[in-house]
Amino acid sequence: MIYQSVNQLIGNTPLLELKLPVPNNSHIFAKLEMFNPGGSIKDRLGVALIAAGIQQGKIRANTTIIEPTAGNTGIGVALAAQQHHLPVILVVPEKFSFEKQTLMKALGATIVNTPSAAGIKGAIAKAEKLAAATPNSFIPMQFKNPANPQAYYDTLGPELTADLGSKIDAFVAGAGSGGTFAGVAKYLQEQLSQIKSYPVEPEGSILNGGPEHGHRTEGIGVEFIPPFFKNIHIEQIYTISDDAAFTNVSLLAREHGLLVGSSSGAALAASLQVAEQLPAGSNIVTIFPDSSERYLSEDIYTV
Ligand code: MET
């Protein structure tokens, strides 16, 4: 097949069974989202946010798109906005990786940095200020736009059941905006009544009650409960240390040939803990959102 646009390369990523020792002889399958053209799971979200904005009449020719992001959503939004020749301003706390910020700029976006200490809330507030001062602008706002979970409900969820049928016992995924977790969990819970769903956060995030502090694990972690979690059945929340996440990142590279980012390391740590709770031979599906290559400047392979 000869593809005609980068958009056609988004989604339908491979599902890999990890050949590592899993407690209770269970199986862990990882959805390899670094195979999307922008290098992360958030390409799915970028196209969905821009399409929803256009459909709702909130994005017209020359609308300036403004979005707060840790980087990957910004890359996805920049990629999608480029197809429509829309200007993009991405508001990024300065702590997020140099590589992601470079890629957003390469795709044509303008970056506005906010202080790391103000967190993602600081980036959201700055985006709102910029939008108020920019005529003809629109913030898709991944943190509350229903198009966020919907993008994953529509694409990633069905891809998992297409690959595994009804043989999925548990779904484990990191939460930042919470869109991936909530959208896929909703889809799977509708299809498979017995499935158990587990969100993953780094230590420093507040889902399990805190305490709130900075962390090296990037792209996941929340400062407020995602509104998308309403009506999703959550079995248990896993809070993973940076050490555990980065140890897995190194292990996955050294022993399994997988070059993944720290949120993937955290997802694997949680999946292994889930395996301890579940009956023998369970099938656990998790998500590896991006690649380690966008974190080399942060010494991702140094635990
Ligand atoms: N992963 C999303 C983004 O890249 C949300 C991050 S919130 C820590 O924007």
UniProtKB/TrEMBL annotation:
Pfam families per record: PALP
SUPFAM superfamilies found in the cross-reference section: Tryptophan synthase beta subunit-like PLP-dependent enzymes
Metal-binding listed as a keyword: no
Entry keyword set: Pyridoxal phosphate
Chain ranges of the Tryptophan synthase beta chain-like PALP domain: 7-290
Keyword Protein biosynthesis among UniProt keywords: no
Cofactor: pyridoxal 5'-phosphate
Residue ranges of coiled coil: none
UniProt superkingdom: Bacteria
Stored PANTHER family: CYSTATHIONINE BETA-SYNTHASE
Name under which the protein is recorded: PLP-dependent cysteine synthase family protein
